[in-house]
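A quick aside before the break. I want you to see a complete sequence-to-structure record at least once, exactly as it would be stored in a machine-readable document. Don't worry about memorizing anything.
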Amino acid sequence: MSTTPTPTRRPNPWWVGLVSGMATFVDAAATTGIGIALVLFQAVEGSTDGLTGNQIGLLTSVLTLGVAIGSLAGGRLGDRYGRRKVFVVTLAIIVLGSVAPFISLGFASMALGIGLIGLGVGADLPVAMATISEWAENHNRGKILVFSNILGGFGIAMAVGLSIAYGSLGPVGGKIIFGAFGFVGLITLLLRLTIPESPSWLAARAERDAGVRTIRADHVSLKDLVKAPYGSRSSRSSSTTPWPPWPCRSPPASAPMWPSTTPA
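That is the input. The structure line, written in tokens, reads:
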């Protein structure tokens, strides 16, 4: 019998949408704010204190590369270790990276901090969206996902507003931008601790532990996209393997699952 813990309460789907959807707020504020702050950290002509133009370009590339790597890894990590664990860790990484300019404006320190922010931003979004989708119900899932994405616009507005208000302060203004999205990230991290693990993920893990193969419980990878029925037409027509390629049985009775609250 599975020993998978069952959540003791069901949070309001809109609360999950707000707290998880703050991923788009923090991520948008961070990516927009970093681009602005790096310019404010640029060394004044004739001074060695600050970043050079080439270093700013490299740091921007570090952010982009970090987001790309995080995006590829985040969903996979969420499937393997759980939504809650991953979206707590990713936000903690973003908060940690935001401390970089307060330690040093040197290239090495900034590269490390911005690299961490990029990894956290990339990995956070797919897990946060999966969490929202799995906690929401059929009648409000689309509304909550749209609401969570709208929050990203407010993140951009915050970064732009801070740059207008404090851009004239130079490096101090850049630190204010980093501190702002780091502070919001910390508050969001604490709020995320109130959200239990996704019941759908717990059910899938229970199915795998019980040896029951279902589409939900089966491990997948990018290479599955080139297999039937997702591959080329010729590969589909020549394949004699039925889809799904295993008998779909009912999940074990011990698999935790919330009853639907949608009115009949």
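Two observations worth writing down. Residues 53-81 form the longest helix (29 residues). Confidence is low (pLDDT under 50) at residues 1-5, 234-239. We'll return to this after the break.
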